[in-house]
Amino acid sequence: MTGPPLTARLRPLLAVARGPGAAVAAVRRDESLVLCRGPVGERTRFETGSLTKTFTALLLAELAARGEVRYNDRVDRYLPFRLPGPLTLLHLATHTSGLPRLPPGLLTRAVRTGWLSNPYAGFSEADLLAALPRTRLHHRPGTRVLYSNFGGALLGHVLARAAGGSGDGYADLLAERITGPLGLTDTDCDPNRPQATGHWRGRPRPVQLMPGLPAAGAVRSSARDLLRVLTALLDPDAAADSAALRTALAEVQRPRLSVPRTGARLCLIWNLRPRPDGALLHHSGGTRGFTAFAGFLPGSRTGLVALTNTAPTPLAPFIQAAYGTLRALDEPLPGTCGPLGCET
Hints:
This is CubicO group peptidase (Beta-lactamase class C family). Residues 10-313 form the Beta-lactamase-related domain. Residues 188-207 are annotated as: Disordered. It comes from Streptomyces clavifer. By secondary structure, the protein is of the alpha+beta class. The chain has one domain (4-335): Beta-lactamase (3-Layer(aba) Sandwich), CATH 3.40.710.10. It has helices at residues 4-16, 52-66, 89-93, 106-113, 125-131, 149-162, 170-179, 214-217, 223-234, 236-239, 243-251, 317-328; strands at 22-28, 31-37, 46-47, 199-200, 203-204, 220-221, 257-258, 265-266, 271-273, 280-286, 291-297, 302-308, 337-338, 341-342. The strands form four sheets. An eight-stranded antiparallel sheet has the order 2-1-12-11-10-9-8-7, with helices on both faces. A two-stranded antiparallel ribbon has the order 3-6. The protein has a two-stranded antiparallel ribbon with strand order 4-5. α1 (4-16) runs antiparallel to α12 (317-328) and α2 (52-66) crosses α11. The chain is globular.
């Protein structure tokens, strides 16, 4: 049964969300709770933006567990042309590829076709591939961390090819290998299914379309489904019938590199912050109409999801509040008892 302290931790986070609707969900050991505000419920679908990449990372780990790919495979092994330099799948999954944040040509096309309405809608998967030969890497792969939506999108395309598809089958592969086995019935890349209405600067937004970069930001999900994902990450052995998926759930949490001068580490897409009482893993995402956060602490079996249907704002107060709430979830409230005693 969920106790009042968990509820008390989550309610202030709902108040921070500036959108018309918000949903927050948490798991703490054997407790779980979903709270909603406004015209949304626990199964309302939100655009998750870059939180999509955590699903792409899980797909990579699942294919690797099956032996269909290896982390150090060159990317162009699965493309119809060669790339300059030893760019690998692991580089894409740790933002060390050297690829720019967006593919060349996307911004120019977006300005012509809908930068203020739907900036990714006119950029196809064919455009993604066409951009690769004229892309200059910002640095040699593996030498620096540079966040890249281009890299996330390319990873999904390559995984679809590696699994026997043509490259445009990311959504189907995700359903077959990840969302289906985990029972995530609200989660997919389909822009035509019902979802919350996004808002930007107080105005309703059209549904975001990302035909060329689905693996970087096209996933929609609900508080209920994302809480189920975190529960699976906290207990992989109990989460899935598939041995490959159980392995993948553990593999995405393994640190792959340290970020210089920050103390942070990168797993497969997930950011990891070392703490005295155990690691904290987190990621966030945003679109022109939505903001999303997910994070978990494996050591205390605690996880948090925070969703709102408004675009991120400068300084990201909702994301910052969600991060702080996650850190506080396993700390006792004043006047309550925790693992180290009682606070007054």
